[in-house]
Amino acid sequence: MLDLIDVTKAYRGGHRAVDGITLGLRPGVLGLLGPNGAGKSTLMRIAATAARPTSGRVLLDGADALARPRRLRRTLGYLPQDFGFYPELTGREFLSYLAAAKGVGARTARTRIAELLGLVGLGAAADRRLGGYSGGMLRRIGIAQALVNDPRVIILDEPTVGLDPEERARFHTLLSDLAAERAVVLSTHIVPDAEAVAADVAVVAEGRLVLQGRPADLVAGLEGRVWEAVVDPAAPSALGEWSTVVRSVREGELLRVRVVAPERPLPDAVPLRPGLEDAYRAALGTGPADPRLPVGARR
Ligand code: ADP
User: Fold this and answer.
1) DSSP state, 90?
2) What number does the ligand 1 atom closest to the CA of 41 have?
3) Disulfide check for 3: which of 59, 60, 76, 183 has CB 3.0–4.6 Å away?
4) Pairing of strands 28-33, 55-60
5) Residue 82: what pLDDT?
6) Where are the beta strands (DSSP E) in the chain?
7) What does the alpha-carbon distance between residue 205 and residue 289 come to, in Å, rounded to a whole number?
8) Residue 167 pLDDT exceeds 70
9) From CA 278, how far away is CA 284, in angstroms rounded?
10) What local confidence, expressed as pLDDT, does residue 237 receive?
């Protein structure tokens, strides 16, 4: 469907926000994970033709989407981090306006908009002005606007920011339904969001792809390497130089830590079942590279 090939984006001064990323988008949800500043938004903007890469190619069904972006834009739904809206328009008017701008016929738009407003739980608020919407409601109208042209490729940049747990769960269900026939990219720094819906996960750090795969495979690769230990913070080196600290909780003078390490890092460390958060942290590599981590996890 949509392919990004060796895409780089350098800003003034030569800083590379995205540095040679190749990524194929196919039906299903791809969770794009990475810390703030990793380059996720820049990559999403390039995929949505909202920004041009400094080098690299963007192909839609094999055809150059940079030279001729119209075809991609017609079939694309994009929710940027900050989407512009008009506070004086109602939710329904806003969606109608965007549907018209995207060339959706009036009758199709009317039905589709009513359906979408229901899907995102805004049926009752459809005729209220956006200026009076809460942050979570605006997020949901943002999700609806990305779907108004029934896109084949859906790009959502941090869509769950500001959603409460119930809205988040509903959103996960909606995404799973959509992803049966559509390529959905969900960029987030919240690992459980990706865990809930992503068939594939890609981790970006400092503009580079550092890990990619199916969550179950990434987790299986860490079997026998995730440990819990209680350590004295005054002696942090006790964990050894190959350990990645995933989480730590203070217990009085001590710290209870969850770490990824190739071997039992301390004599009384207890093995834990690995999760996606462990794979993510290990890929970001808070410690020196572990030559025994799965390929792609090394930095
Ligand atoms: P993320 O979405 O993962 O938080 P971004 O893509 O927003 O990351 O940013 C990646 C890097 O590029 C950051 O270092 C950021 O400061 C830089 N950056 C983003 N946009 C611009 C811009 N318009 N001009 C200069 N630098 C930018």
Assistant:
1) B
2) 2
3) 59
4) unpaired
5) 82
6) 2-10, 16-25, 28-33, 55-60, 63-64, 76-79, 153-157, 183-188, 200-205, 208-213, 226-231, 244-251, 254-260, 270-271
7) 14
8) yes
9) 10
10) 64
CA distance 288 to 140: 41
Q: For residue 147, what are the CA distances in angstroms to 74, 128, 159, 218?
A: 11, 20, 13, 31
Instruction: Give nearest CA residue, ligand 1 atom 18.
Output: 17
**138, burial (CB in 10 Å: exposed 0-12, middle 13-18, buried 19+):** middle
pLDDT tens, position by position, 84-100: 888 999 999 999 999 99
User: What letter would DSSP give residue 81?
Assistant: S
Contact at 8 Å (CB) between 137 and 94? no
Tell me the domain boundaries of the chain: 2-215, 220-284
Give me the CATH topology for the region 2-215.
Rossmann fold (3.40.50)
* pLDDT score for 81: 86
For ligand 1, say whether the CB of 203 is within 6 Å of any of its atoms. Answer: no
How far does the centroid of ligand 1 lie from the alpha carbon of residue 207, in Å?
Answer: 9
Q: Tell me the three state secondary structure of residue 231.
A: strand
Q: Is 19 in the pocket of ligand 1 (CB under 6 A)?
A: no
Q: Specify the pTM.
A: 0.88
Q: Please report how many Cα atoms fall inside a 13 Å half-sphere around the Cα of residue 43, on the Cβ side.
A: 38
* Cβ of 11 less than 6 Å from ligand 1: yes
Q: Which helix (H) or strand (E) holds 264?
A: none
Structure confidence by residue, pLDDT tens digits, 190-222: 899 999 899 999 999 999 999 999 999 999 999
Q: Is the CB of 188 under 6 A from ligand 1?
A: no
Closest alpha carbon to 259 in 236, 291, 225: 225
Q: Looking at ligand 1, which residue's alpha carbon is closest to its atom 7?
A: 41
